[in-house]
Design a protein that fits this description.
The protein has 414 residues and is α+β, with helices and mostly antiparallel strands. The chain has a domain of 223 residues: START domain (Alpha-D-Glucose-1,6-Bisphosphate, Chain A, domain 4). It has 8 helices and 9 strands. Strands 1, 2, 3, 4, 5, 6, 7, 8 and 9 form a 9-stranded antiparallel beta sheet that branches. Helix 6 crosses helix 8. It is extended. The N and C termini lie far apart (145 Å).
Length: 414
């Protein structure tokens, strides 16, 4: 209010001053002069005036951002519902089947049991439980048969489609490359070739058997001091020939004579199954051999073997040489390596008071032969060799246990 009064006084003073001036001014000049003089005061009044809140203008909608690419399966829920529906349909079929069977059985039971209600004896309850168990087994078997029939139908369709592919492929190839394809197929290995190879291997094994027989006594004397430091039936493993040959030794004392023990060993060896050609004290055989362990790792071998028995006054010696070639290891074909085995069993009488006893010394030697030098560091070959070596100790222990069991059975029968 004070500022407004001072402004009014100022305007009156200007009017009086303009009247007193001799210079004549028209209306436009007066108005322009007033505006120039009053402009600073009007600006101050504008600043002192209450500031009105700014009116919010219309909000502009933000522009939509670009759509992100979906990184999830949009049909996941639908697929899950479909899978659950299929599962429920299968359960419904099984339940309907079980219900029909139970209704049929109940109807037969009711029709045959009218007028015969009474107390069940213990025998009847036992029969009832047996029938219930039998019914459950039959229902389970029929459900399994239904499932197997469905699986067989699917397998038949798959086989049929594969047959169609195999039939059409040669035709398509001939259309693309006419006259340039040779047709090959697998056939049985010629019998003559296999017999010739087997005969060559047996000839080498026969020579090895004679050489091993001459080395038995020397090896036994060299190893006996080492075996004396070990418990009975505890195998001794060692490497020889720059680590290439692996040797396993063991001894076992049995309370039977040398002749009885030797005969038990001979029966044990003749119990093998395979293509056996036994003449006097020589066994020539070929067979398949499988090694497996607790971890379900298995290996399959083709084996040729010659064993010779030497019965002497002061000892009985079994010497054998074997050739075995790995065929499968962990389900995969193995090539490029084979193994030679040189083993013996030496039986000597020992004196323990008045009782007759024998000492059985066993030895197994295995040498790997790699056909190509580039396969020396092959991990598969190394794994097969390690697997074979790990079975040597169990082999010797099995020999001794089996022969000892034969001797004990024979003693009980007598």
């Amino acid at each position: 209010m004070h500022e407004a009064e001072s402004l009014q006084e100022t305007l009156e003073f200007l009017d009086e001053a303009l009247r007193g001036v001799d210079v004549t001014l028209d209306g436009d000049d007066i108005s322009s002069l007033k505006s120039s003089l009053l402009e600073p005061f009007e600006q101050e009044l504008d600043l002192l005036a209450p500031i009105a809140p700014p009116q919010e203008g219309p909000r502009h909608q933000s522009e939509p951002r670009g759509r992100r690419k979906t990184n999830y399966n949009q049909n996941k829920a639908r697929q899950e519902r479909h899978a659950e529906l299929v599962k429920l349909r299968g359960e419904v079929e099984n339940l309907e089947f079980t219900l029909k069977r139970l209704e049929t059985i109940r109807g037969k039971r009711c029709s045959g049991s009218l007028g015969h209600k009474g107390k069940e004896t213990n025998g009847k309850s036992a029969w009832k439980e047996a029938c219930v168990r039998q019914l459950k087994r039959r229902l389970r078997a029929e459900r399994e048969n239904m499932h197997l029939r469905k699986c067989i139908e699917k397998d038949k369709q798959l086989v049929k489609s594969m047959q169609n592919l195999l039939v059409t492929r040669p035709a398509l190839w001939n259309m693309v490359y006419p006259g340039t394809r040779q047709h090959t197929r697998r056939i049985e290995i010629p019998t003559g070739y296999m017999r010739e190879m087997a005969d060559l291997i047996f000839d080498e094994l026969a020579v090895g058997v004679e050489a091993s027989y001459r080395e038995v006594e020397g090896l036994d004397r060299a190893v006996s001091p080492l075996l004396a430091c070990l418990p009975t039936c505890e195998p001794l493993l060692r490497h020889a020939i720059n680590g290439r040959r692996i040797e396993a030794f063991c001894y076992n004392d049995v309370p039977f004579g040398m002749t009885e023990t030797g005969n038990a060993w001979w029966r044990y060896w003749n119990s093998y199954r395979g293509e056996v050609d036994s003449v006097d004290d020589v066994v020539t055989e070929s067979f398949g051999w499988e090694i497996s362990d607790a971890a379900n790792t298995s290996a399959t071998f083709y084996v040729q073997q010659i064993l010779r028995r030497h019965v002497e006054n002061h000892r009985t010696v079994f010497v054998w040489n074997g050739y075995f070639e790995p065929f499968l290891f962990k389900g995969k074909r193995i090539r490029g390596v084979y193994y030679r085995e040189q083993s013996y069993v030496l039986i000597k009488p020992i004196t323990q008071g008045k009782e007759e006893s024998s000492r059985v010394s066993s030895c197994e030697m295995i040498t790997p032969y790699i056909l190509e030098p580039s396969m020396d560091n092959d991990p598969t070959v190394a794994a097969v060799t390690k697997f074979v070596v790990s079975s040597m100790s169990s082999d010797i222990i099995t020999w001794n246990e089996m022969v000892e069991s034969l001797l004990l059975d024979q003693a009980r029968q007598n």
